[in-house]
Amino acid sequence: MSSEKYIAASCAIDNGIVYVNGAPVFENKTVSISEFLDKAYQHFEIGYPKFYKMDNLSKLGVLGTDLLLKKNFNAHDYKPDEIGVVLMNASASLDTDIKYYKTVSDIPSPALFVYTLPNIVIGEICIKNNFKGENAFFVFKSFDGTFMARYVNNLFAENVIQACICGWTELLGENYKVVLYLVEKKQTKESWLFNEENINKIYRINNG
Fold first, then answer.
1. Residue 1 lies in a domain
2. SS3 annotation, 116-134
3. Which residue has the higher pLDDT, 96 or 56?
4. How many structural domains compose the chain?
């Protein structure tokens, strides 16, 4: 069996537009990030009420993952512990940290406090999709395709995972950008070889 891994699908959310496999599927540039996420949730009929209780970073991750997998993934091909999630961003959970800090002088908000760790977005993704495999969240100044390719390929090489959702989930205030990749061992006519070059190429394509 080939040791190569393939990018089966991609999803990007940036500047009021949602892209799936490079094609725009939803647009609303006239509202705040909170309104945009709620409108996108309703448009795609995700049907997950807990979505409204999440912080914006988790909403971005859950929305992006849902669209990434919707037509491109069969979870029944894998056991829950064979599916991993590896994400990175530049601001960690700072967007929620700032909002939580503003409540401390009055009544600290438990609803905000639970989101003051960046890897909570992975937890929300895993809970919704019943993923139980290896997961990790890293903080870099900018997207690092070299690190992502090496880290995820190593997980496959060690037989830790058989599929992976990975990528960039950045949010601070009204500035946000998500680029997610679905990585599997099987190749299709539409898939890209999973390597540093193609990871960065897809990221640049979606760098609106």
1. no
2. CCCCHHHHHHHHHHCCCCC
3. 56
4. 1
